[in-house]
Amino acid sequence: MHAMHEIELKFQIPDSALTAVEAELKARADHHRERLQAYYMDTPDRRLAQARMALRVRKEGRKWVQTLKAGGSNTMMRVEDNQPAKAVAKGQAAKADLSLHLNTPAQAPLQQALTWDAALDPQGSKLGLTELYRTDIWRQTVRLAVGTGTPHAGVIEVALDLGEIRAGGLSVPVQELEIELIEGHPMAVIEAGRDWVDRHGLWLDTQTKAHRGDRLARRAAAPDTPQGGVSLKARPARLDTSATLDQAWRAGVESCLEQITANLSELATAPLDTSPSLYQLRVGLRRLRSLGSLLAGEDLPFPQEAMANAVDLFRKLGYWRDGDVLGWIPPMLTMLGGPDMPLPGGEAPADPVSLARSPEATHLCLDLLAALLAPPATSGPAMQLYRPVLQAQLKRWHQHALNLSKGFRNQTDEARHRVRKQCKRLRYAMDLYAPLLDKRPGRDTYLKQLKAVLSALGALQDEVSAAHRYREATAHDPRAWFGLGWLQARRGAHIEAARQELKIWRKTRSPW
């Protein structure tokens, strides 16, 4: 056995499609069924989980295998090191032997995550690794040829996993479809994924069994402690100073995709509180849109066609975000003596969980992954150094925001909203390509004031949106007049607060 980079995607299967999915696999002549019993280990303070890694010992038929899995370069790729292991005695907890991963690609990530001294403690017995949860899965597999006769031809393995994850006295079901590349072009995995999504309503899920198992183990260890949802915040694109424009757009897409897929997966699990992952998902989509605008004038294979899908999903999620953010208004109006009235709103789109599970959301992610598989540039404008190109564009965006903000007090609501959108676009692009501005004089002060501007503009825009809802409601509900009047009376103060923050920002030295 050996270490490798596996290329795969995982999808959740709705209950309504399970029978059809299973029947499709069983109809294949090469259908194979196997029981997989795995034991997952980590330190008590979850150092492997924090590093997005998983260490397990698994019985595969009659064989026992110890595996380390770690994150790869994008959503499709993961580092996997498999080594023959000793059997786990019946009724006993599993034990890890890190010496199995010495002199393999798994050694370095293990040393970094666990601060493991492989020379003094080759087996890792002093690290406190302990079994935290188990999985018991029946896996059904078939192999399929995809795209035969095309440049994207490949052979894939489709695996249906049915079973459960157990920790303490708790368990959660497993009902997943994994598509892994055996040979050929990675696009074969994406094309197969699109087909299964369209025919059976599957949705992409980047949460591993280890992720779900660690969460279950935490619940089992502290049953009386509320377990909140886990949202993934943005991280800057990973680039060095010599990166090209081609490398820059890919690193930007990977950063956005990581945030989008992680929060889509979290939202699709139907957490009790959807607000954190809903917010971070919209941030990821907005960062992606900002990236698309930043690169719109460049000769690059950036997936601009995916932007319409991103815009539509962002808009639909915005309905639920507004409901969360404006929820304080109805009780405030009642406290002020107004009528007891729920927050008005137009026709609601699908709920956030359904949107996260929608083919629209999954196809967006698959389109972005497909774009990253485009061959790297070897000549032309895409081979320019990215820093001067993007610095010049950010400088233009800064000047455009300044121009839009002139005469702010007397602008229309729509014009003020354009100021906010341009400032948001600027901020997200600066955050995404933070290495551009390293050691630039005034960078931190500038960003701090830009965020203050956005906070003031956001407070204004939220109440403008609320006023719009109440204004529309007056056509059929006279109670809405009270809320509309109260919101209109507050608008002047919000406009002045935003104007003052913009005034300070206009005088703040830019990092360009």
Describe this structure in words.
With 512 residues, this protein is of the alpha+beta class. 46% of the residues lie in helices and 18% in strands. It contains 15 helices and nine strands. It has helices at 15-26, 47-50, 107-114, 187-200, 209-221, 245-268, 275-294, 307-325, 329-335, 352-356, 359-372, 386-404, 413-432, 443-473, 480-507, and strands spanning 3-12, 32-42, 53-60, 63-71, 77-84, 130-146, 154-167, 170-184, 203-204. Strands 1-5-4-3-2-6-7-8 form an eight-stranded antiparallel beta barrel. Strand 7 and strand 8 form a beta hairpin. Helix 4 runs antiparallel to helix 11, helix 6 (245-268) runs antiparallel to helix 7 and helix 12 (386-404) packs antiparallel against helix 13.
In short:
The chain is an alpha+beta fold.
The largest beta-sheet arranges its strands as 1-5-4-3-2-6-7-8
Number of strands: 9
Number of helical segments? 15
DSSP helix fraction? 40-55%
Overall body shape? globular
Following the backbone from N to C, one meets helices and strands in this order, namely EHEHEEEHEEEHEHHHHHHHHHHH
Global Rg: 26 Å
Which class best fits the helix and strand makeup? Answer: alpha+beta
Distance between the termini: 53 Å
The pLDDT mean sits at 93
Strand percentage lies at 15-25%
Major sheet description: 8 strands, antiparallel, barrel
- Poorly predicted runs of 5 or more residues: none
